[in-house]
Amino acid sequence: MEVKLKKIRLSNPLLSHFETDFESIPFDKIKPKDFIPAIKKGVSLALDSIHAICNNANKPTFENTNLALESCGSILGRNSSILFNLNSAETTDEIQLITRQAAPLLTKFQNDINLNEVLFDRIRYVYENTNGKKLNSEQKTLLKKQYKGFVRNGALLGMNEKKKLRIIDGKLAKLSLSFGQNILAETQAYELHIKDEKKLSGLPDSLVEMSKSIAEKKGKKGWIITLDYPMYIPFISYSEERELRKKIILAFGKRGYQKNKNNNTDIIIQIISLRKERAKLLGYNSHADFILEERMATSVSEVKKFLDGLAKKAFPAAEKEWKAMNTFAKNKLKLKKLEKWDSAFVSEKMKKAELDLDELELKPFFSLDNVLSGIFEIVEKLYELKFKENYDIQRYNNEVRVFEVYKNGKFYALLYADFFPRPGKRDGAWMTSFRSQKKNQRPHVSIVCNFSRPTKTKPSLLTFQEVTTLFHEFGHALHGILANTSYSSLSGTNVFWDFVELPSQIMENWCYEKEALLIYAKHYKTGKVLPREFIEKIKKIKNFQQGLHTLRQLSLGYLDMSYHTKNSNEIKSVKKHEKSLIEKFQFTEDVDENCLSTSFSHIFQGGYAAGYYSYKWAEVLDAHAFELFLENGIFDKKTSAKFHDNILSKGGTEHPMVLYKKFRGKVPNSSALLKRAGLI
């Protein structure tokens, strides 16, 4: 076996130790064809390790069973992480095919572990017989997590039920991949080709320049608008051409809902049905009941109570805001009736009128380079981190930037930063890890965004929403960078899902504070700091139409829960179900040819199934937590040290409420959020 492995290593870099700076990924040496052989070999090596654990003649102990299990599969984990990250940020038809081939292999492998009776018996023996005094708190958490993980993934099922579970998990893995690939295909297939310059009325110069550049690259005259966020959002917000706004908004809403091979409606029905079947097989009433057992919000009823409480406060504010929008649209813009394609446009006009602020005036003060260097300085003040750009480390695309991260002169992490949209990259923004932190291993983390590109005449100038997005994803990155635990499965963002957004959302608060703005909000040409009057207005942006914004988020939370609660098997039509549920949250008429669910990647491709409420849940935590920073100073060393020591560095080593109370000294409540949002 060893000779064979050496031969494989010569031709497959994924089966070798990375002999690179910081053991970074040698992307230039990796070919798509390397992944499947590497994953198969990784599975084989991991199963050999599992076999050794099961055949250990000694009595099960934490060291020879739990720790051994935690340590196996490192090569497989590394390589599958690389593959699936590439599938999100740099995919091709070949990569998509390979991920579809890899998914069932990895699902089967995970089932082979979870359903291994001998292995589970050893885990259970340690769980039931280990004297707690022999284990530290992190070891206890790992033991509990492993035991519950086995139970929650079918270890106690009979043979027939285990077979059913394997089939279900295999189907779900394929369906989730297909859902995401369909949305990517739909997004990239569409273009709005404008040939008449008059049709560009109202658009920012940067968007006009960007759209012309895209047209030129495609060998076409005129201007091309795509569904990528940096183009789509400013177009619907500023275009004076109502019919074109309608056209592109309908195109965006049709993704996954057209009569073509990318239609996701049947996939959704299959996913929710299989999730329901899986939950029932494991002894739960619904997928939501299964998921929420391991969340801060422990039950469907608690989530409903939480959403209902916020909705009660948000509805009156939203209704008032919508009436004001209607009045403004009729009196100032001569629109008799507000439609779906008018909302963003009218909102932007109204914001300018009420706050005396055109957000386009802010963009010159938010060049990507200035904001990024500002974040680095803010983070240095808070957590004593320093960032050094490395131009030599291999990256999966030449646009990606890589930074070495140091704390007190000691290497702490690699940070990959990927900022701009391109073919093969899904929309949105996210943080992920190429390598997790564990004892004697520092992490390699990545943030991926889709920001406005530089043009021939200007650098990348961010909207304020893009600024908050960058701060948000950087908060996630800090959760990974500052992790300081013994075990990778408890490290960084490996926490309860409704706790994972706390580090990201609390980071957004520094976008709005004067002390922070003075650091990074500087004119890209003159270096002039953002004028004081703008700083004061930015504060007001946060609460502008907060009722409507909150209501939209809540509607998505309700929709998510409806797909994953006990009556989900009654859903026959995705569109009808969606309409019946969220119609009461909408003030514009429903559009028949649009469907939100068919591109709701968070719950059908990402990890937010029965968990979309987490965004608002974490907002409660972040508002309550940031109050302490406001009381003591946003750069107060003692406060940031407490947040670092009890939240950012701890990962999932303790229950999140325990960690939160250690930081804040008390349990959170929603009053801070409601006050901040202007809802009370």
Structural class: mainly alpha
Report on the biggest sheet.
5 strands, mixed
Query: Percent range for helical residues?
Result: 55-70%
Low-confidence stretches: 1-9
Q: What CATH architecture label of the largest domain applies?
A: Orthogonal Bundle
Strand order of the largest sheet: 3-4-5-7-6
The count of DSSP E runs of length 2 or more, i.e. the number of strands, is 7
Mean pLDDT: 94
Instruction: Quote the beta fraction.
Output: 5-15%
How would you describe this protein?
The chain contains 27 helices and seven strands. A five-stranded mixed β-sheet has the order 3-4-5-7-6. Strands 1-2 form a two-stranded antiparallel sheet. A hairpin with an 8-residue loop joins β6 and β7. The longest helix is centred in the middle third of the chain and has 33 residues. The protein starts with a helix and ends with a helix. The N terminus is likely disordered.
